[in-house]
């Protein structure tokens, strides 16, 4: 085995290296962007593929005082982690009827409520638990997704939440919303949503709601729209060192560093003649005698099939392109005249400072967004945490 291969973990097919020092630095950089607000580290979807518990701990160590998840199951797993301080607030916002409301109430989670059915279920859970629920009312200010509509629906939700609060069944701890187009600088919906958010929170406060926090700022708003910061900002993708969109800037423009590096060990290197078909469908044919390298990662691991014949890979200090179709477990790169040994490192993406591609490069190759590239990396790829 070559020295290069020996330096790789013995027998490791692939790995996603997670740099927790970079994550902590990113959290500190984001806090500096919003000095008057608390910071909620969004760790939903297993921390965008990076690992929820290690990333949550690192974010809290860097000054995050809130953690955010989509599902109650994600939030309950965080609350059960003895390494997280008891005073860290944990919020979850994606509920369906019959969800684990009582467990969430007993765990002291902040639960989001977008309509009357949810309010009724959380109130019933609070009665059974004999513990006041911590409720955050979500306003739909224009995203058209989750959240309560302005007007009569919002007025009813506020009224009934205050009624339950007066009975000691809950406390309204927050008022919040979410932007539709904050990653598109100058989009008219940004100002419209911000105005509506101010109107809806002002109405609730006139009726007697006294929230701990009001919040609407996601990653792009945290980075570029200080007028949206209110009491709390909720960065997600930016915490992992990925820009929300190329239109607002690269990670380095905001002092952010990508946290994940995805790499694999070449499983096979072989010489083939010109005119040799490669992978399913022979969508790539070698233009002449060349060397092929087999990368043991595929769409079962989250490598997007849409990046077939387009995804970039760093091998031996040079960018190579996926040759033909990405299969379930593997894909091929044409190495030209180079002859690395089996076990040599192939880097799909990382921070970019070693010349490797970034998650944004893969997003461009696959016709998607960088969020999806990091989040979809599957459980067959071990996460290796460095700089803990």
Characterization of the model:
The protein is elongated and about 80 Å long. With 388 residues, it is an alpha/beta fold. It has helices at residues 3-7, 20-33, 44-48, 52-61, 72-79, 101-106, 116-129, 152-166, 188-207, 219-224, 359-366, 370-375, and strands at 14-19, 38-42, 66-69, 89-92, 110-113, 133-138, 170-176, 213-215, 232-233, 260-265, 268-272, 277-278, 284-285, 290-295, 312-315, 318-321, 331-336, 345-349, 383-386. Mean pLDDT is 97; it is low at 1-7. The protein has two domains: 3-14 and 259-386, Beta Barrel (Lyase, Ornithine Decarboxylase, Chain A, domain 1), CATH 2.40.37.10; 34-240, TIM Barrel.
Summarize the structure.
The chain is of the alpha/beta class and 388 residues long.
How many individual β-strands? Answer: 19
Could you tell me the mean pLDDT?
A: 97
Q: Indicate the proportion of strand residues.
A: 15-25%
Query: What's the number of helices?
Result: 12
Structural class: alpha/beta
Spatial strand sequence of the major β-sheet: 8-7-6-5-4-3-2-9
Distance N to C terminus: 30 Å
- Looking at how many chains there are and whether they match, the oligomeric state comes to single chain
Share of residues in helices = 25-40%
List keywords for this structure.
elongated, disordered N terminus, TIM Barrel, 388 residues, 6-stranded mixed β-sheet, 12 helices, alpha/beta, Lyase, Ornithine Decarboxylase, Chain A, domain 1
């Amino acid at each position: 085995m070559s020295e290069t291969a020996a330096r790789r973990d013995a027998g490791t097919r692939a790995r996603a290296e997670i740099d927790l020092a970079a994550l902590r630095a990113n959290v500190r950089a984001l806090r500096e962007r919003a000095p008057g607000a608390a910071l909620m580290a969004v760790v939903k979807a297993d921390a965008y593929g990076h690992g929820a518990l290690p990333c949550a701990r690192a974010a809290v160590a860097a000054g995050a005082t809130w953690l955010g998840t989509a599902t109650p199951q994600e939030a309950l797993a965080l609350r059960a982690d003895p390494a997280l301080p008891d005073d860290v607030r944990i919020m979850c916002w994606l509920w369906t009827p019959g969800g684990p409301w009582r467990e969430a109430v007993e765990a002291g989670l902040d639960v989001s409520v977008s309509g009357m059915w949810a309010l009724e279920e959380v109130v019933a859970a609070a009665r059974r638990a004999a513990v006041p629920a911590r409720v955050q009312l979500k306003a739909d200010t224009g995203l058209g997704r989750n959240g309560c509509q302005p007007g009569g629906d919002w007025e009813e939700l506020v009224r009934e939440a205050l009624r339950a609060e007066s009975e000691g069944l809950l406390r309204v701890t927050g008022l919040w919303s979410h932007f539709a187009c904050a990653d598109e600088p100058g989009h008219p919906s940004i100002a419209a949503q911000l105005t509506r958010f101010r109107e809806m929170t002002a109405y609730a406060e006139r009726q007697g709601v006294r929230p701990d926090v009001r919040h609407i700022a996601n990653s792009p708003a945290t980075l570029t729209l200080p007028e949206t910061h209110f009491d709390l900002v909720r960065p997600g993708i930016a915490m992992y060192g990925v820009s929300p969109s190329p239109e607002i800037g690269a990670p380095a423009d905001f002092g952010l560093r990508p946290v994940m590096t995805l790499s694999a060990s070449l499983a096979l290197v072989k010489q083939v003649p010109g005119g040799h078909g490669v992978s399913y469908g022979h969508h790539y044919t070698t233009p002449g005698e060349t060397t092929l390298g087999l990368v043991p990662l595929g769409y079962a691991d989250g490598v997007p099939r849409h990046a077939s014949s387009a995804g970039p890979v760093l091998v031996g200090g040079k960018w190579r392109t996926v040759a033909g179709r990405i299969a379930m477990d593997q894909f091929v790169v044409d190495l030209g005249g180079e002859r690395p040994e089996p076990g040599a490192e192939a880097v799909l993406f990382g921070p970019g400072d070693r010349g490797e591609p970034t998650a944004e490069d893969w997003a461009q190759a696959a016709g998607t967004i960088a969020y999806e590239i990091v989040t979809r990396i599957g459980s067959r790829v071990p996460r290796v945490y460095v700089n803990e």
